[in-house]
Structure formats: C-alpha cells, structure tokens
Design goal:
- The structure is a single chain.
- The protein has 2 domains: about 80 residues, Roll (Ubiquitin-like (UB roll)); about 130 residues, Cytidine Deaminase, domain 2.
- Helix content is about 35%, strand content about 30%.
- The chain has 8 helices and 14 strands.
- Strands 9-8-10-11-12-13 form a 6-stranded mixed sheet, with helices on both faces.
Length: about 260
C-alpha cells in the first residue's frame, strides 16, 4: 500500500531476493553469505580466489551445488597440492575478509600485502576510455532498474570492451560473481578494469588485487584503508564523480589525459 497526502493506493513493487549461500570446502562448512540467488558456481569460485583458498581455477578438483541440486549450498573440493597450501587459510577462515576483525588498519594492510602481491602492470589508458566504460555501465543494471536495490560490478577487457557483469544485494558478492565468471572462462588475465556501483572498502580492493585487475572505478568515495591498500598493491583506484570527472586516489600514472 502507498500512503500519500491525497490518499491510499495499492501498488505492486519488485523486491530484490536475498537468501543464504552456504559454502563448504572439503565437506566442511566454511562460510555463509547473504546474497541474491544466481551464478552460484561463479560466485563461489570468485569468493575462493578472493579469500586465497585458490590461486587458479584448475586448483579446484570439483565445485558443485549439493543436497539434491539445492543452489543455496555449494561445495568445493581442492586438489591435494592446493589443499596442503590452503591449510592455514582454511584454519583461520574469515580473518582477512572480516570488516570488523578487531585489528587496526595498519595490521590489516600488512596482512593483506603479505597475501596479495603488488601488481606489476604497465598498463596505460586514456581517460576517455575509462569514461566510455562508465557510459556503458547502466546497460548491465537490469536488477537495479526493477528493484533500485542491487549492487553492480562490470568487468572490461584488454581493449576496454565489456566482458561480464554481476548484480547482487551485496557489493562483495557482485564482485565475486564477476571474478568467478572470468576465472572459469579463462578471461581473468585479460581484464583491465572493473567498475562498481558502490563505495570501495579494503575488502573489495583485496578481491581486485587477488584477481590481478589493475583499475577499479566506483561511483562512491573509497575508505582510507582502501586507498592505502590500493597504493600498496599498485591498483589504480578511481572515483567517478559527477559529469565527466574522474578522481584517481591511487595509481594516477596509468591514466593519460589527452
């Protein structure tokens, strides 16, 4: 029902779905995420990369929905070599990715720069190429157009052509879905830029760094910790401001203004 000064009317509105996704690694519960259903396998693959559980997709022996096709539960089985390497991460699960982990910013950045190598990337891009990515962003917000609730992430390739997109109630999930799709298809190494509808926190820079994507752009200002981590990891962190304005908080050397 809609209430206004002129009266009460009946209205139908679309509401974004939100359901839990249980992730199991080696048969054991690892994490439960609240997300918008869809792209579960890609979502979990991207999540595993961001967490450091895997470095490459071929380190996953099997990834599948379980419990009779229940898409709210996905199980991941690692190959033996990767399981040995990931052992410490599985034991301290959630330490890096928790936004309220009880440690100070400097400790977080130090931990993340030990687990995520700085990018050695010589990419140079014209600023109008980045603006062209921004101009195409709305083409990939179907859920947002109907619900005005979802977050969106869109990846662009070596020539700044659109690659894949992801929408979700959670901004982290949208990134994981995009990274997972690229990881599964083998196109992640060809990704130059990711554009996000949300603000960028350090967890998102962690995911971008693990995915080895050199440029991250967003429509909202980043946090101080995100900027510090982006500088440490040599990621260009760019704010999309009103009109045709881009503000680089880090990695400005990649952007050419001509």
């Amino acid at each position: 029902m809609q209430f206004t000064r002129t009266g009460v009317t009946s209205r139908t509105r679309n509401v974004l779905s939100e359901e839990p996704l249980s992730i199991r690694v080696q048969g054991k519960p690892y994490a439960v995420l609240m997300r918008t259903p869809g792209d579960e396998i890609a979502h979990v693959a991207g999540f595993c990369l961001g967490e450091g559980i895997i470095d490459t997709y071929d380190e996953i022996k099997q990834i599948a929905s379980c419990d009779g096709g229940d898409t709210n539960v996905v199980t991941v089985t690692l190959n033996p070599a990767r399981l040995f390497k990931a052992g410490p991460i599985l034991k301290r699960r959630g330490f890096i990715s928790q936004s309220s982990c009880g440690v100070c910013g400097k400790e977080v950045v130090q931990d993340l720069t030990q687990s995520v190598r700085p990018l050695q990337n010589a990419l140079r891009v014209k600023w109008d190429q980045l603006l062209a990515c921004v101009d195409r962003f709305d083409d990939y917000q179907a859920l947002y157009e109907t619900t005005h609730t979802s977050h969106t992430a869109v990846a662009f390739g070596s020539y700044f052509q659109p690659q894949v997109a992801g929408e979700d109630v959670g901004r982290h999930n949208a990134v994981d879905k995009v990274v997972g799709k690229l990881l599964i298809s083998g196109e992640l190494t060809n990704t130059s830029c990711i554009v996000l509808s949300s603000r960028i926190s350090y967890e998102l820079i962690q995911k971008v760094g693990r995915a080895r994507i050199p440029i991250a752009m967003a429509f909202s200002r980043p946090t101080t910790l995100a900027v510090e981590l982006a500088e440490k990891l040599n990621i260009s962190l760019v704010l999309i401001s009103g009109g045709h304005t881009l503000i680089a908080y880090s990695g400005a050397q990649r952007i050419i203004h001509v």
